[in-house]
Amino acid sequence: MNKDSTTQVSAAEPFEAARDARTQARRRQLLAAAVKVLQGKGSEQMSMQSVAQEAGVSVGLIYRYFTNKEDVLRSVIVGVLEDIDARVPAAILAAGDDPVDRVAAGFDAYCRVIAENNEAAVITYRESSRLSAENRTVIKNLEMGSVQPLGRATQEAVEAGLFAPVDVDLFAYNLVLLAHGWALKSWYFQPQHTVDSYIRGQLGLVLSAALAPDHHTEYTRYLTAKED
């Protein structure tokens, strides 16, 4: 590649980045509209027209981003799982080398993704059965992958003797269910808890049960409830 070609490529990069950012922003806008429609109508009654109307755009624009309404539903669900896939491992890594801190950080991040995508998380449970078998397999594999970082951190805690022997897979999935509980039972939890107090309370419960007895005093920061 000659110098002029290299200059042209370099000059094009900011424009491509800006275009990609606009594309992602538009997709987020359309999916946010789809979530509102799905909440009110469900996937069977949702149409591309209804999503376009909610988003304030033309139907033709919707079809530039999504093939059909199943593609829209799939993208709503996948978006939550991809957010989990990005943020949970990053939180675990940032927590350092202590396995218990890593479990706590992963659970914290998982809960916050669910809280930020509360409606989409509920739609995942309510509407995923409407997807094709192929798309359900995609969702299942993504969900299984989202649990693995929590499972690895739990295994590290067991191997370090910080946790009593536990069924690692069961423990990791219990953390996931507790995280989803914020969305599924929001009518009950949200009048009494903030996201922060919910995370602290659930961590206190699960860690008090999982920690080896002689390590409880090391982790009182998780076991002692604090008021907001």
Describe this structure in words.
With 228 residues, the chain is mainly α. It folds into two domains: 1-66, Arc Repressor Mutant, subunit A (Orthogonal Bundle), CATH 1.10.10; 68-228, Tetracycline Repressor, domain 2. It contains eleven helices and no strands. The chain is elongated, with a radius of gyration of 21 Å. The protein starts with a helix and ends in a 5-residue tail after the last helix.
> Please, how many helices?
11
CATH A-level architecture of the largest domain: Orthogonal Bundle
Question: Main sheet, how many strands, which sense, barrel?
Answer: none
Strand composition percent:
under 5%
Counting structural domains, the number is 2
What average pLDDT do the residues reach? 90
* Element string (H = helix, E = strand): HHHHHHHHHHH
At the fold tier of CATH, the topology name of the largest domain is: Tetracycline Repressor, domain 2
Rg for CA atoms: 21 Å
**Distance separating the two termini:** 60 Å
Molecular shape:
elongated
Assign the CATH superfamily of the largest domain.
Answer: Tetracycline Repressor, domain 2
Low-confidence regions: none
